Sequence to fold (451 residues):
Amino acid sequence: MRSPRGLSLRLRLVVAGAVAVVLALALAGTALVALFATHVERRAGAELTVHLDQLLAGLDRGSDGMLVISAPPADPRFGQPYSGLYWQIESADGLIRSRSLWDWTLSLSEDPQVDGGVRKSRLAGPQDTELLVMERAVTVPQRLGGGSLREAVAMDTAELAAARDAFAAGMMPYLAVLAAFLILAAGAQVAVGLRPLSALGSQVAALRAGAVARMGGAWPSEVRPLASEIDALLDEREQEVRRARARAADLAHGLKTPLQALMGEADRLRDAGDDAAAEGIEEVAAAMRRIVDWELARARAAAAQARDLRTPVASVAEGIVSVLRRTPEGAGLDWRIEVPVDLAVRLDEADLSEALGALAENAARYGTDRVGLVAEVAERVARISVVDDGPGIPESRRTALTDRFARADESRARHGLGLAIAAGIAEAAGGRLTLADAGPGLVATLELPVA
Fold:
């Protein structure tokens, strides 16, 4: 199960925005429904107050001297039993009710009221209903005999609840559409806002591939500090590489004179007839020289990561073959070069010569009749192969031969740095060295990024 910390920023922001939108619209919907219910109740109270006025206007004295409603409200629901709309008058003459109340009596409050003031309340109604009641106390005019009375008009609150629920149900689709629109808008906003981060990742990938040298400063203010720190880190790295190359060069120059002195001492010993001592000194000097070459190759290969390089492969291959054809081991071989003229790799020319030369030297050393240098490109990767027809290398030993000081023929006084140097240069440039069987012979392939 993925940890919450592993979720993408885009997903986090979209989910948080969606939750915020849903909560905000839920609160807004609840508030709107409550506001609508209040409005409906206020309108219902106004209508009930009109009915109160109509009741008061219809008051009269009957032939028996009792108060009667000569002109009841016109709403037909007052004449239907338990219709949900009722009126009632209490006076000294008794109780007058609408036909809709049937056998039910409104239990009005006993609190004294200001004459003419309307009071709103909720009471229990017939058939387990709840009623919204508007009532008031009125002083009867002298022409109707004087005194006071209480009149009340009530309606079933189920009608108010039904209107509220209908409003909520009708509003839900619109809220859902609004929520979807706002969530999509939030997603678009997140996509636009995080686009610089995607561009940042692409720029870092371009840095790693060597397509660009720096992050640059064309970034939003929130991202610019990170880009600046990356550029500063790259500057420090290049300075460290330059210092490392300088130290390696100083080491090489510092050892050059002692190595030459050792070789001169070996020549004097050989002239004196001490061939065994001369060969020993030459072997030690050769080992020291190859170690120096190894360190120089590592420093140059590390620098390849920090520069925009472009080296034609064909010219380097032709130069290497031209030199090896003049050596005793390569003079009798048939050299074949099949490299596209326009192929260039992202590697320093000296580094490519070092790596490809080491492979070609091994091929010349162990090849019997022919050696081929073949190159092809696949998915922005150059595959430069050196193929010989020698005895080859057992598969069990191929990986070990790319380690320093390993060699295929333990009987010869050679120090096996060639394959290791080539592998180190290829890896530092973002590629690799592979060894395969040529049947007979060996195929050593450098895989390097295309410039």
Remarks:
- Residues 309-451 form a domain with the Heat Shock Protein 90 fold (CATH 3.30.565.10).
- The CA atoms of residues 313 and 344 lie 6 Å apart.
